[in-house]
Structures are given as C-alpha cells and as structure tokens.
Design a protein that fits this description.
The protein has about 280 residues and is mostly beta strands. It is built from 2 helices and 13 strands. The chain has a single domain, classed as OPCA outer membrane adhesin/invasin (Lipocalin), CATH 2.40.128. Strand 3 and strand 4 form a beta hairpin.
C-alpha cells in the first residue's frame, strides 16, 4: 500500500469510529463542516546547494522555486459536550512555479512560471476546549499530518541553454502537529480566532529524477514546520463566513549523501489567504 494513502485511511477510521458513538447520543455532539477556497504564494529556497566546493572559485550557489497556487480545503469537526473534539482535514493547492538558480546575487538561469506543482496535505487532529472567559476559549490540539509536494519540469525549458530542465521531484513529510487556537467571541455574530502550531517532522523523504539519472530516494533526518493564522468570522443564518490570512514555514535539514548526491538543506515560505464557510 502506498505510503501517501496511509494517513487518509487513519483519518477515515477515526472519523467512522467517533461518528458511530455520536449516533448513539447525538445530543452530546456538535457537527461542523468547513469548506474553503485558498490562494497561496509559494517560496522554496535552497540557500546553499554547493556546500562541498571551494567558495573562492564558485561562490555561494542557491536555488529558488516560486509561484502562485490556488486550491481549497475542507474539514469536519465533531465535538463532544463542547469539550473534546476530533477533526480530519484536507487541503489541496495547484499552480505553475518558476525555478531559478544563481551564484551569490546573480541569477544564472531560470524558467518561466510553467512548472506544474501540487501540494496535498491530509491531517487528523484531536483536542480540548478550555473556556477561560465568558467570551474566550483556548483549544490545544495534536495529531498527525502528511504533506506531499510534487514538481514536474520534464518539459520546461531554461533561459540559459534553452533545453528542458528535466527534473521531477516528490517531497514527503510526516509530522506531528502541536498547536493551540484562541477564539474571542465579541458578540453573537462576530468572532476572532488566532492559531499557532509547531510541526515536528519525524520522517521526510524526497523522490528525485533528473535527465540521465535514475530515480533516487533521499531520506532527510528530520526538520520542523511553523504555522500561524488569524481568522475573522461572521455568523449569518446558522452559516459562518470566515476570512483567514495564514503563514506556513518549513525547515528541512540535509539528507545523507549517496552516489547520486544529496537533498540539500531547504526552507519553504507559504503565505496565503482562505475564504471559507462553516455549517
């Protein structure tokens, strides 16, 4: 069974189990469904890809992959007695990115914004609501998440040679989120929610294929992610409309060197905006 389907199965089993209990005593449970539209600016960097060469001869070389991505997200939250909750989530982004690499401050080669890129991220979280004031609720949570990112530049040409970049890459992170949200209910209609999260990546691997080279899997020891968002919500006729700017950051260490090289230290910034409805 493919690894990228494992978390989806875990989410479905968890959801099926808890909804089975919910049917028995439905009055103790609250159901919330969320559907959102997302925009994100993606910025991936390898700040120093030539760490084993003579800097006096080559200078620091770097790689950058940037672009705008569009997609959506969905989640279902089942809350027991307004306290404990479980929430499977799914987000999907797609866009066409630009790859460029340089030496010090000079761009040596680049492509157009034509590299098909996909981000797929299912998660399962569980948590607890703590009312700390009549209008403020703190909700810590944890769980498991999986992030998949693919880039396919087999048919994308570079500005330096006019030849195809010829690179295909699939990144995989499995991580444990540790986060909390704070919701302030200003009145019956308006609310503001702040959320912060640390993601401990306990497994990361990259499947890489370049022109003339075999497909290689690079395992990276570990890394971490940081996520933050601020949401403004309005309740109208039992439907909650929300606007949420957010920021995601990933920091991944060097992989172990193989005969085909290694996956270098890299960081990713993802800044975006979500428009959603909850019912």
């Amino acid at each position: 069974m493919k690894k990228k389907y494992f978390l989806m199965i875990v989410c479905l089993i968890g959801l099926w189990t808890i909804t089975g209990y919910a049917k028995q005593e439905d009055k103790n449970y609250k159901h919330l469904f969320y559907i959102g539209f997302s925009y994100a600016h993606y910025n991936y960097r390898e700040p120093d890809v030539m760490q084993d060469v003579d800097y006096n001869l080559y200078g620091v070389r770097w790689v950058r992959d940037v672009g705008d991505m569009w997609g959506g997200s969905a989640s279902y939250r089942l809350t027991w007695q307004n306290k404990a909750f479980i929430q499977p989530e799914l987000s999907l982004l797609y866009g066409k990115n630009q790859y460029n690499w340089g030496q010090k401050k000079r761009i040596v080669s680049k492509t157009n914004h034509s590299i098909p890129s996909l981000i797929f991220e299912p998660r399962l979280t569980v948590g607890w609501n703590f009312p700390v004031h009549k209008s403020i609720t703190i909700s810590p949570y944890s769980g498991i998440g999986y992030r998949f990112k693919s880039d396919d530049s087999d048919d994308v040409k570079t500005s330096r040679t006019g030849r195809n970049l010829g690179h295909y890459r699939k990144s995989n992170y499995v991580y444990i989120p540790l986060g909390a949200s704070a919701e302030y209910q200003s009145d019956k209609a308006w609310s503001i929610t702040l959320k912060g999260e640390y993601d401990w990546i306990f497994r990361a691997w990259h499947v890489d294929r370049s022109m003339g080279d075999p497909t290689t899997t690079f395992k990276q020891p570990n890394g971490y992610g940081l996520k933050g968002e601020a949401s403004v919500s309005y309740l109208y006729n039992k439907i909650i409309f929300s606007l949420t700017p957010y920021l995601n950051y990933w920091n991944i260490r060097n992989s172990k060197r193989t005969e085909w090289g290694r996956e270098p230290y890299n960081i990713t910034w993802e800044t975006g905006l979500k428009l959603g409805v909850t019912f």
